[in-house]
From TrEMBL:
Organism taxonomic ancestry: Bacteria, Bacillati, Bacillota, Bacilli, Bacillales
Residue ranges, compositional bias (Basic and acidic residues): 384-406
Designated name of the protein: Riboflavin biosynthesis protein RibD
Keyword field: Hydrolase, Metal-binding, Multifunctional enzyme, NADP, Oxidoreductase, Riboflavin biosynthesis, Zinc
Function (record text): Converts 2,5-diamino-6-(ribosylamino)-4(3h)-pyrimidinone 5'-phosphate into 5-amino-6-(ribosylamino)-2,4(1h,3h)-pyrimidinedione 5'-phosphate.
Gene Ontology MF terms: 5-amino-6-(5-phosphoribosylamino)uracil reductase activity; diaminohydroxyphosphoribosylaminopyrimidine deaminase activity
Record PANTHER family: 2,5-DIAMINO-6-RIBOSYLAMINO-4(3H)-PYRIMIDINONE 5'-PHOSPHATE REDUCTASE, DIHYDROFOLATE REDUCTASE FAMILY PROTEIN (AFU_ORTHOLOGUE AFUA_8G06820)
Annotated cofactor note: Binds 1 zinc ion.
Pathway(s) this gene product operates in, as recorded in its UniProt entry: Cofactor biosynthesis; riboflavin biosynthesis; 5-amino-6-(D-ribitylamino)uracil from GTP: step 2/4; Cofactor biosynthesis; riboflavin biosynthesis; 5-amino-6-(D-ribitylamino)uracil from GTP: step 3/4
NCBIfam families: eubact_ribD, ribD_Cterm
Reaction(s) the record says it catalyses: 5-amino-6-(5-phospho-D-ribitylamino)uracil + NADP(+) = 5-amino-6-(5-phospho-D-ribosylamino)uracil + NADPH + H(+); 2,5-diamino-6-hydroxy-4-(5-phosphoribosylamino)-pyrimidine + H2O + H(+) = 5-amino-6-(5-phospho-D-ribosylamino)uracil + NH4(+)
Amino acid sequence: MTITERPPELNGESYMRLALQLAESAAGQTASNPVVGCVIVKGGRIVGMGAHLQRGHHHAEVHALLMAGSEAAGSTVYVTLEPCSHFGRTPPCCDRLIAEKVKKVVVACLDPNPLVAGTGVERLRAHGIEVEVGLLEEEAKRLNERFFKYIVHGMPFVTLKTACTLDGRIATKTGDSKWISNGESRKYVHTLRHRHQAIMVGVDTIIADDPQLTTRLDVPALHPVRIVADSKLRIPLDSRVVRDGEAKTIVLTTKQASLEGIRRLNAYGVEVMRCGDGPQVDLRLAMRMLAEREISSVLLEGGGRLNGAMLEAGLVDRVVLFIAPKLVGGEKAPPAFNWAGVERMKDALKLERLSVTTYGDDLCVTGYPVYPDGWGEPSSDGSAGKRETPVTPAAKEEISDVHGIG
Ligand SMILES: NC(=O)c1ccc[n+]([C@@H]2O[C@H](COP(=O)([O-])OP(=O)(O)OC[C@H]3O[C@@H](n4cnc5c(N)ncnc54)[C@H](OP(=O)(O)O)[C@@H]3O)[C@@H](O)[C@H]2O)c1
Ligand SMILES: [Zn+2]
């Protein structure tokens, strides 16, 4: 006897699950836009399906409505994010749904932007369309966690990915780090790269490993923007991220960086951003500056010191930790999270919503840090408090841009 998972029943949840799958299939290709899926059902048949595939292209509802054609009238629409209600370059999705005379709209979650949340639903109801909100809401929110952080806080969502040995080291005492995790784990990392807009490392990782930081999969995939934290421009000019031209590279630095050094990097097409005038890159300011450039997600790939500094500043949203069943020992072998640390165990930074999976014989633990009040330092730009950033220009722009482009 083989025991398998029960096949899904046909109900509203199964249609919404399909819409979520459609949305998820576009993860990584919508830039700073959310991923959204839509399924239209009428008389017991799916008559339209769609996903938002690319910023500036049709929203999911429009794709699905186009497929449904005249069948849209009297149908039930399952959509993973509240339909937009603001005019941009084309009429908002709400107006399309109203014009097509759909009967009912089932929404998984409301738009996170406090300036627009609920307005789409209100508009539909005002036109006599039945609206239900909250079906598979948690899944829908998780799917767009990057977009939600970016829109509400004006900061990129940061996934810290690292691979360490069972004794928590990311290299041996001689600095050898190839390879800690197995091929299966490393393959999955390339999918993570495809799904983030930027990838970030500390300059010592560039010096030690000269990584390409591109996405290499069996199918064509998107390269993230490569970001290097380098306060004094120590990055070697012959490193791959400077020379290979495979993807855009941005070096985050400080006022200490010489104009000459900046010019040399610019000559290779590398952009240099000065983030603060302190001894090291002001990471909070750097994240804010990246968000202003519409980078809504960052995959932080170490090394240990940058990982530690990002955690210490409260800037990491999710941790993906690959643990290989190896022990390397050595006091000098670098740890995965290198920071000053807390004094008491009760002050440890905890992770919640843990999930554990395996890639071959590697363990992969994913969790979300829960920062206690006051964790993270105020930025040198004078702004304080890491989680209370008010609605930002990015959020305001969403009204005319993210949800305005048809
Ligand atoms: N297993 C893995 O997944 C993995 C991944 C990556 C790296 N590694 C290994 O990790 C080792 C390198 O790690 P590492 O910890 O020595 O170096 P790192 O984290 O790659 O780079 C640290 C450097 O980043 C710069 N930086 C700029 N702003 C900073 C800030 N605000 N806070 C902290 N650092 C800042 C600093 O140099 P400046 O002060 O000059 O700016 C600092 O020395 C290598 O052996 C590499 O092979 C392993
Ligand atoms: Zn829309």
